[in-house]
Amino acid sequence: MVLNKYLRVILPLLMLAAVSMTGCRISIKMNGSALDYNVYHTVHVSEFPIRAALVYPPLQQMFENQLLDYISKNTRLQTTDGASDLEIEGEITGYNLTPQAVTENALASMTRLTISVRLKYIDNKAEGKDVDQTFSAYRDFPSSEMLTDVQDQLCEEICKELVELIFNATLGNW
Questions:
Q1: DSSP-assigned letters across all residues of 28-60
Q2: Does residue 129 sit in helix, strand or coil?
Q3: Is the pLDDT score of 32 beyond 60?
Q4: What is the per-residue pLDDT across 117-135, written as a single tens digit (0 to 9) for each?
């Protein structure tokens, strides 16, 4: 009799727990992107010309290569030169040096290199997912160093950060 009473209470609770466990599912995508590969197959990445007042000629190729490499490593999209499911285009709009950390002698002890990229991302498969945004990143370096000595390394680091920001705002859909 006592066992019957416990079964009436415990059995429904066990059934409810079992049903609720089968109704939950956790899904994690490990490829870095949030794309449905049944819908999206191709991406077109246009050139990113430099439209900044200051120009560092290798920057365009450096940025474009990093962007294409990142997309290739983190998605299964095929890059195309023509019509595609997704389009990425833009321009490098800023390459600026600004003094930072002014000392008591009114001299800057640090200089900041900032690179800005205006991006237009077009999703040809779904409305409302387009992005038209400017992304910026910077690195500081000691004013005692010449820009020409640190420029390549700084541009590599800044481009890497910009590519990650752009990927997360578009293909990563974070």
A1: ---SS----TTT--EEEE----B-SSS--THHH
A2: coil
A3: no
A4: 999 999 999 999 999 999 9
CA distance linking residue 112 with residue 128, whole number of Å:
36
Helices 58-74 and 147-169, axial angle in degrees (round to 10) = 40
Residues 84 and 42: their CA atoms lie apart, in Å, by 5
Band of residue 55 on the pLDDT scale cut at 50, 70, 90: very high
57: alpha, beta or left? (left if phi > 0; alpha if psi -120 to 50) = alpha
What is the residue whose two structure tokens read 């160093």? Answer: 145
Specify whether the CB–CB gap between 116 and 94 falls below 8 A.
yes
Calpha distance 161→36 (Å, rounded): 25
Pairing between β-strand 42-45 and β-strand 131-142 as defined by DSSP bridges: unpaired
- Read off the pTM: 0.78
